[in-house]
Design a protein that fits this description.
With about 210 residues, the chain is an alpha/beta fold. The chain has one domain: 3-Layer(aba) Sandwich (Rossmann fold), CATH 3.40.50. It is about 40% helix and about 15% strand. It contains 8 helices and 7 strands. It has a 7-stranded mixed beta sheet, sandwiched between helices.
């Protein structure tokens, strides 16, 4: 599959995808791009605006994963301790755009917001997922190290990251970069669901062509 991984960060969702796909990752923070390149050297990386890249390149992919910025939607960040701000509507722009115009399978991920989601989503642990396919109910228990407030070493171990690569990086807030990761097991599960549908669709098309 040709996969587009938007707002890729350091690749929590991508970690267990393997190297059998043609993957392009887009991330604006070059310090995170450098870490991503070390972790996934076979992927193509783009240091740039993921929102713009999506609308300009969406027709080139079979599966698109997007994790737009979450702070303006978060319950924690909107608990009265920070300056008020508008919710970042890129989240819903991408969901609506992909649902209307994208022919492949997509997954848009974000936090559980402080308001009622404007578009119904599917929830797994602390994440919401907007997909054009059913996720089912995976038996993936959220790790305590990830769920609660922990240090960099504990989080790196929970996600299975090389702590030295994280420590040596130029990422300013390393703990936040790790906390922002989607649990690798969830990323693997969702890609697997999309991949099954993708292969089934291709097999059905081959049957149609054979019958013709």
């Amino acid at each position: 599959m040709k996969i587009l991984n938007l707002y890729s960060g350091i690749g929590g969702n991508r970690k267990l995808w393997g190297d059998n796909h043609d993957i392009t990752a887009v991330e604006w923070d070059y310090s995170k791009v450098e870490v991503y390149n070390k972790l996934f050297p076979n992927d193509k990386t783009v240091a740039g605006n993921a929102h713009s890249y999506l609308i300009e390149n969406y027709t080139n992919y079979d599966f698109i994963w997007s994790s737009p910025p979450c702070p303006s939607h978060s319950k924690i960040n909107n608990a009265g301790t920070r300056e008020r701000e508008y919710p970042d509507m890129r989240l819903y722009e991408e969901i609506i755009f992909l649902d209307k115009w994208f022919d492949g399978k997509f997954c848009v991920e974000n936090v559980v917001p402080y308001y009622k989601p404007l578009i119904q989503a599917q929830q797994i642990n602390r994440h919401l997922f907007w997909c054009n396919f059913k996720l089912g109910k995976p038996d993936i228990e959220e790790k305590a190290q990830i769920k609660y407030d922990n240090d960099i070493a504990t989080l790196a171990n929970a996600y299975g990251y090389d702590l030295d690569i994280i420590k040596e990086s130029k990422i300013t807030n390393k703990r936040k970069a790790l906390r922002n990761c989607v649990e690798p097991e969830i990323g693997k599960y969702i890609l697997g669901r999309a991949q099954d549908i993708y292969h089934k669709s291709n097999q059905e098309q081959q049957v149609l062509f054979t019958d013709d």
